[in-house]
Structures are given as structure tokens and as C-alpha cells.
């Protein structure tokens, strides 16, 4: 689901940034990303995949709060690509945000593009990934942002910090998977495996040696920086016999709480502390997909990695498995997400907008487009589509930021509606077929600088409804409320959390439910949703 949020750019400030006349951040880190194909073997077969520097997952990037990254991206692959820095606000510098034809044209094969990534108040785990077609399935990596003085975590410093990237693997070429579902109009073929740090784990065929292993010492505490780089699935994650202490999400701290599992949305990051307090042994960490839609085929396999205690002992064989929630346990998924609350202490204050000046209601739907000969792979021979407020976005051929900046006419319209054009029972059991047909346009919504914004993200039950992962570029937002069914503008705000709501950049709106988010429109630019 995608939506543009456009805030008029303050051209003088952008110009000063381009000239380098504004003060620099504390440190500038320089990296070179070479996009190229590399051979990888998994699940009894081999293929070439698109990578950064031949690595899968890609290199982990380390920085501190307030630093600047300069990344030169050289495209030695065979397809266009861009790189998005997921969760970085890019204050007053949207040019390097990354989504193709939104803030830049794609980087063509044989060319390069230098990105400047301005970190501001982000602190914790974020990530970077390709933002063109499905290239991000293999072109991705963690971005770890530590406190500015490198010591002041709001909890005892862990013995080690380990990125845990949840990924996905198809035996087929990933571009072939994309071409197939775009051509047929149906759903994408399900993946053949999920991955932890690029490895499926030894529950899959031919994967005894393709298992990520983490060695720990008894009574020490470790931080797992978990990224959900899976394409579309929410994931359950757990470690056998170990409770996890959740301390952060999406580059912001939360009030610590213990849980036997986590639920993590596509694109979301969660930081947890793992205390190695069990008898020395081998323990599986595992992850599997959450799926709330009956009758939809999905990858129901479980990926595993192994936590192995250091020392002399006879390990259990096989290792002890974690107790993950059932794949369709909606309450487990929703309740975990609702447990997230901002740390909101003196050192890490929050600023929830209270005086809302712009109220928006966006409906998110699965739709269909007519297929001329009714031979497409969607329902009733139609083609699957998706919409926000009944508009299915058409990607332009000139990036919208350039079109705005250079006043190029005809690239986009600015009439994206503040509310759905039709008011109906959004989560009703039987909806008219005509509601399935969206308009197809390139529209943006204009926000005035400095306004306090509340957006109610409302799922609909069209075609049964799905959980909708929503990511807002250029901003983090406070999730002040969420629930099932239709949002009630009179009753639901009475239960908002305005004291310590979590600060996030990615959230999954529960199937046939809603979420309410707030933010201040203080970052000029053109940003994707």
C-alpha cells in the first residue's frame, strides 16, 4: 500500500545543504555499495542473486546518533535499482530517501549515485534495502545507530550486539517471480523458505550446514537487533526456554517488558535483550509467518538458528525448539504490538501532538482491476490491485520530487482525498462488488508545514481484508490507538494513549481493523507511504 505525502520544500535550505554550507554532523562515514550478482546455493539448488558487495544479507552499517553517511552506489547489475534508508527521517534532505520515481530516478546499470544520509534523533536499529520491484529480497542490510557518546544506553550495556535479519528465499529467480505475478495479475508464488541472517536453518532440506549459530556465555546478556526483511509477512520470533526483554523498536527506545515471543511487521525492527541464564545447551531461535486470512496459501515453514552456550557439555540433539504462537493467532500478534510503549523518561522525552490541526482518514483495501478476457489470476479472472482511499497509485516516469522542484507539469496531481470518497461499512461482511474497482492515478496529499497531523489508518474487508503493513518515509509517528472493526470517531479517541505511545515508522494495521497515528509535519519533502 503506497501513498504520497508532499510537504512544500523550503528551497533555500535544500540549496544550502547541497552546497554544504550548513553545519556538518558529528562524524561522516563513507561507504561504497557495489550492486552485483553473486552465486548462492540453498535448498539443494543454486542461482545468482543481486547483492551489495557480493554479501547476503548486505553489510551492516554502524553510526552514532547525529552522524552523516555518504554512500556511493555503483550499479554493476543488470537492472535498475535504488537504495532506501528505512526509518531515517532525512531532515530537509529528501533527495537521498531512495524510492524510485518518488525522490529520484533509478540508478541504471553501469552508473552510480552518491547518497547523503543525515541521521538526526534516530537511535537503535534501522535498515537499508533496495526500493525497486522486489530487489530488496536480497539487497538489504542492518543500520545500527548507537548513542552519540557510545555508552548511554538506558539499560546495562550488553556483552555483544547481534543483527538478526529475517529474510525469505525462492528457488526461482526473484525477478521471474515478480514477472509472473505481474503478468498473471494473481498473487505471488509463496517462498520456499524463511531465513535468519541469510540461512534457512537445518529443518529445511540440504541445510544442515546452512544454519546461523550464535555462541553465548552463561549469565551474560546479549542484544538481538531484529529486522523483518521478509517481503509481506508479519513474523513470530522466539528463543527456546529464554524470555526476551523488549527495549526498542524502529530506532526508538520503549519501556522494557518481558515476552516469550515477538511479533514483527515487514519493515519493522525490534531490539531485545537475551539473558543467557539457562543450562548450557543448544537452543533454537525460530521464526514463522503469521497469517490471518483463511484459504490463502502462504509459506508455513519455520526458519531456525542455534544459540550454543560456551563450555563442555553434551548438547541436546536436536536442539530444543521454541514455542511459537499458532500461525493464525491474531490476539498474540495484536497484543504484543499493543504492549509497546515509549520509554518517555527525562533523557528520552517524547512530544506527542495534542492540538491536532489536520485530521485524515485513509482506507486501505485489496481491489481488483478488470482483465479484458477475464483470464487473469485474481478473483473472477480479474487482476489484483491495492488502493488507499480508493486510489491505486500509478508510478510516474519522472520522479515526483524533481517534478515539484523544477515545476514540471503533468507528472502528478495534488488532489489525494483526506477521507474515502465513499462512506460505507468498511469492515462489513458483504460489500458491493463495485467497491472493488479503484481509480488509478498519481496523486499526492499536501500538508502545510508545522501542522499537527492525525491519520486514522482503516483496513477494509474488501476481498476478505488483510493485515496492512504501513511505513511512512521521512517521519516517525506516535501510534496512539488501534483496534478491530471500524474506527469510531466519538468513542475510540477516548482510549488513546497520549502519555507514552510508541514512536514507530512501520506498523501493521490489523486485518479489518484500524490504527491511529500522530506526527508534526516539520520535515519538508516528498515522502512515500
From TrEMBL:
It is found in: Secreted, Extracellular space, Apoplast. Keywords: Apoplast, Copper, Glycoprotein, Lignin degradation, Metal-binding, Oxidoreductase, Repeat, Secreted. Signal peptide: none annotated. The keyword Glycosyltransferase does not apply. Binds 4 Cu cations per monomer. Its main location: secreted. One of its GO terms (molecular function) is copper ion binding. Its cofactor is Cu cation. It catalyses: 4 hydroquinone + O2 = 4 benzosemiquinone + 2 H2O. GO terms for cellular component: apoplast. It comes from the Eukaryota. It is an enzyme of class 1 (oxidoreductase). GO terms for biological process: lignin catabolic process. Belongs to the multicopper oxidase family. PANTHER family: LACCASE-15, MULTI-COPPER OXIDASE. Lignin degradation and detoxification of lignin-derived products. This is Laccase. It comes from Solanum tuberosum (Potato).
Amino acid at each position: 500500500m503506497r501513498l504520497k505525502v508532499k510537504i512544500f520544500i523550503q528551497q533555500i535550505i535544500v540549496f544550502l545543504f547541497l552546497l554544504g554550507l550548513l553545519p556538518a554532523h558529528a562524524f561522516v562515514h563513507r561507504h561504497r555499495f557495489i550492486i552485483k550478482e553473486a552465486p548462492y546455493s540453498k535448498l539443494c539448488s543454486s542461482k545468482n542473486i543481486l547483492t551489495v558487495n557480493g554479501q547476503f544479507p548486505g553489510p551492516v552499517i554502524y553510526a552514532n546518533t547525529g552522524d552523516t553517511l555518504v554512500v556511493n552506489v555503483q550499479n554493476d547489475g543488470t537492472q535498475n535499482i535504488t537504495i532506501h534508508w528505512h526509518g531515517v527521517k532525512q531532515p530537509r534532505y529528501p533527495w537521498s530517501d531512495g524510492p524510485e520515481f518518488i525522490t529520484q530516478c533509478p540508478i541504471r546499470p553501469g552508473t552510480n549515485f552518491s547518497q547523503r544520509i543525515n541521521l538526526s534523533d534516530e537511535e537503535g536499529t534501522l535498515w537499508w534495502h533496495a526500493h525497486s520491484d522486489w530487489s530488496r529480497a536480497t539487497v538489504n542490510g542492518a543500520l545500527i545507530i548507537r548513542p552519540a557518546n557510545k555508552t548511554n544506553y538506558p539499560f546495562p550495556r550488553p556483552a555483544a550486539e547481534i543483527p538478526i535479519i529475517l529474510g525469505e528465499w525462492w528457488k526461482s529467480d526473484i525477478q521471474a517471480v515478480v514477472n509472473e505475478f505481474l503478468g498473471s495479475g494473481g498473487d505471488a508464488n509463496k517462498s520456499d523458505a524463511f531465513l535468519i541472517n541469510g540461512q534457512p536453518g537445518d529443518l529445511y532440506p540440504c541445510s544442515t550446514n546452512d544454519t546461523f549459530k550464535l555462541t553465548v556465555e552463561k549469565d551474560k546478556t546479549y542484544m538481538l537487533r531484529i529486522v523483518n526483511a521478509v517481503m509481506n509477512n508479519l513474523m513470530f520470533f522466539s528463543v527456546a526456554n529464554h524470555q526476551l526483554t523488549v527495549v526498542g523498536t524502529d530506532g526508538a527506545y520503549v519501556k522494557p517488558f518481558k515476552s516469550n515471543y515477538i511479533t514483527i511487521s515487514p519493515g519493522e525492527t525490534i531490539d531485545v535483550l537475551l539473558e543467557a541464564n539457562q543450562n548450557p545447551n543448544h537452543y533454537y531461535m525460530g521464526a514463522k509467518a503469521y497469517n490471518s486470512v483463511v484459504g490463502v496459501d502462504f509459506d508455513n515453514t519455520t526458519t531456525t538458528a542455534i544459540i550454543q552456550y560456551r563450555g563442555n557439555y553434551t548438547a541436546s540433539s536436536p536442539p530444543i525448539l521454541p514455542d511459537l504462537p499458532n500461525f493464525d493467532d491474531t490476539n498474540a500478534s495484536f497484543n504484543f504490538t499493543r504492549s509497546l510503549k515509549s520509554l518517555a523518561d527525562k533523557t528520552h522525552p517524547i512530544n506527542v501532538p495534542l492540538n491536532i490541526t489536520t485530521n485524515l482518514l485513509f482506507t486501505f483495501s485489496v481491489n481488483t482491476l478488470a482483465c479484458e478476457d477475464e483470464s487473469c489470476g485474481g478473483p473472477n479472472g480479474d487482476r489484483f490491485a491495492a488502493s488507499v482511499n480508493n486510489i491505486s497509485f500509478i508510478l510516474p516516469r519522472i520522479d515526483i520530487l524533481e517534478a515539484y522542484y523544477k515545476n514540471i507539469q503533468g507528472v502528478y496531481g495534488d488532489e489525494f482525498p483526506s477521507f474515502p470518497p465513499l462512506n460505507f461499512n468498511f469492515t462489513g461482511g458483504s460489500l458491493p462488488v463495485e467497491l472493488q474497482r479503484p481509480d488509478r492515478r498519481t496523486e499526492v496529499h499536501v500538508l502545510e508545514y508545522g501542522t499537527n497531523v492525525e491519520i486514522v489508518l482503516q483496513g477494509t474487508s474488501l476481498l476478505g481484508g488483510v493485515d496492512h503493513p504501513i511505513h511512512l518515509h521521512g517521519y516517525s509517528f506516535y501510534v496512539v490507538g488501534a483496534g478491530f472493526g471500524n474506527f469510531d470517531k466519538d468513542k475510540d479517541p477516548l482510549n488513546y494513549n497520549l502519555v507514552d505511545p510508541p514512536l514507530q515508522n512501520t506498523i501493521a494495521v490489523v486485518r479489518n481493523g484500524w490504527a491511529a497515528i500522530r506526527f508534526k509535519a516539520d520535515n519538508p519533502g516528498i515522502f512515500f507511504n
